[in-house]
Amino acid sequence: MSGINWPGVGAIFHHEMTRFFRTVMQSLLSPVVSTVLYFVVFGAAIGGRIQSVEGVEYGAFIVPGLMMLTILQQSVSNASFGIYFPKFSGTIYEYLVSPVGWIEVTLGFVGAAAMKAVLIALVILLTSFFFVGVHILHPFWMLAFLVLTATGFSLLGFIIGLWAKSFEQLQIVPMMVITPLVFLGGAFYSSDMLPPFWEGVAKLNPVLYLVSGFRWSFFGLADVPVGVSLVAVSLMIAACCVAIRWIFATGWRLRE
Amino acid sequence: MTGIIQIESLSKQYGSGTKALSDVSLTIEEGEIIALLGPNGAGKTTLISIICGLVVPTGGTVRVGGHDIRTDWRAARKLIGLVPQEIALEPFEKVINCVRFTRGLYGEGPDDAYIEKVLRSLALWDKRDAMTRELSGGMKRRVLIAKALAHRPKVLFLDEPTAGVDVALRREMWEVVDQLRRDGVTIILTTHYLEEAEEMADRIGVINKGQLLLVKPTSELMGEFGKKTLTVELSEPLAAVPAVLGDRGLRLSPDGRSLAYEYDTRADRTGIARLLGDLAGQGIKVRDVSTRQSSLEEVFMTLVAEPRQEVTA
């Protein structure tokens, strides 16, 4: 195989980002409004009754969880919609007849979906500064976890978009799987707060490792070792890449 | 001479067991226009889809510009432009951005001067900033052509380019194809409109039930299989065809002023001279004569009804 068609990657990335900026207000406004509501409900109403979690003010404690919640939802929905829409409108043929392979298509779509999710997460971080005092202990690792998680879940969303045959299927995985995993992944609490049995169950949830690693980058607190979090997200990225390569090689749900 | 497209023993069987193509071999020369004719489900679109990369073949090989479409697919695809049968466009994108996007996919850097040339040649320049959803059906089809030409392909596939468009637009599309021919682009088109193939193609391939029945130059095909009708305009109207003119199958027009005589161009004797002689012998004065070639539709129906002919590729 000859080298990567970088102008092809750029064309897909630019095309996807243009779509995002065309609807920038609704792309940003909706997650920001949701986050403000979370801060009001969990931070002010409930958080007022919780002094602190592991020495961190509750309002600040939930900031990494909220960012993770957003990044997971946005990554999956952006990437799945990004590749599903050409399938729905019929323009997918262009990607299949042009000299772009699975690497270019994945880099273009997933790169754009992850970029959008990271931008939205950063806007949410900025929004949180209006409500709570947040100090980021390890900014580099915070960004690294953000980018790695956005990449991993954009890849997952991309697979969902390739698999989906209808808009219903496109929405069912994020709704039935991703959101529960995030809520049960310690976005709003430390897994130490759970009874021992449920703490064990929670550790089967891959999202727990992401939230934990991400929270560590903010406060130096983690439910699981940071190295395990990094390995978890790296494994997820690798597994998704293998699956996507297989889909393009076999043409499953793409070619006859 | 090696053609720009070389297809050898190509076959495709779908998972359901349906055989869409059986052992198709064909060589297409650079700069020619070849029309693939066949009824629905004949395998025309499958053939195009395999060459372009949309469908994976079960057997056989295809080389485009010497590049195998499976092992050297990037180089092969760079030479190809495809205008699909269905109109599929990003609805919320400007025309010019659609074309720029396709150019990028093919690994080409920006070239707005070339894109302007393409859009102007397709009468789309004035619509360059319009959203594609605002365009008429004919314009959308031209945008698809502009996209297919965005990277200067050597081979252009047009899958049913005038399906569902009105007569005026069909003419317009033919002019576009004619311009592309002058620019030296090799064109492979599939069509249901037999008149279209007759009008545009240098060669015609007839496909039926996944088999390429024949490929011949259009004029040769028409000459070989075509029947002609001789129309004899009479100076004085006749009440009926005189019995002496025999059973030639002559048809008298309702006003009695013309006789129609159908003859086979492949026959050793067409019978025209004898007919005119017999008319003169009967004292019937002839005012004018004209001939009309039978339509390709009739040729096509003859072909698919006959046993398989030898392929001349």
What does this structure look like?
The complex is a heterodimer of chains A (256) and B (313). By secondary structure, chain A is mainly alpha-helical. Chain A has one domain (24-250). Chain A is built from ten helices and two strands; from the N terminus they run ααββαααααααα. Chain A has a two-stranded antiparallel ribbon. In chain A, α6 (139-163) packs antiparallel against α9 and α9 crosses α10. Chain B has 313 residues and is an alpha/beta fold. Chain B folds into two domains: 5-223, P-loop containing nucleotide triphosphate hydrolases (Rossmann fold, 3-Layer(aba) Sandwich); 227-293, Alpha-Beta Plaits (2-Layer Sandwich), CATH 3.30.70. In chain B, the strands form three sheets. Chain B has a six-stranded mixed sheet, sandwiched between helices. Chain B is elongated. Mean pLDDT of chain B is 88; it is low at 308-313. Classes of the chains: A mainly alpha (256), B alpha/beta (313). Chains A and B meet through α1 and α4 of A and α2 and α3 of B.
- At CATH level 2, the architecture of the largest domain in chain B is 3-Layer(aba) Sandwich
Number of helices of chain B: 10
Helix content of chain B: 25-40%
Strand order, main sheet of chain B: write it out: 6-7-8-3-9-10
Average pLDDT metric of chain A: 88
* Residue runs with pLDDT of under 50 for 5 or more positions of chain A: none
Pfam families (chain B): ABC_tran
GO molecular function, one term (chain B): ATP binding
Organism (chain B): Paracoccus fontiphilus
InterPro entries (chain B): AAA+_ATPase (IPR003593), ABC_transporter-like_ATP-bd (IPR003439), ABC_transporter-like_CS (IPR017871), ABC_transporter_ATP-binding (IPR050763), P-loop_NTPase (IPR027417)
What are the main properties of this structure?
A: 256 residues, B: alpha/beta, Rossmann fold, Alpha-Beta Plaits, six-stranded mixed sheet, four-stranded antiparallel sheet, disordered C terminus
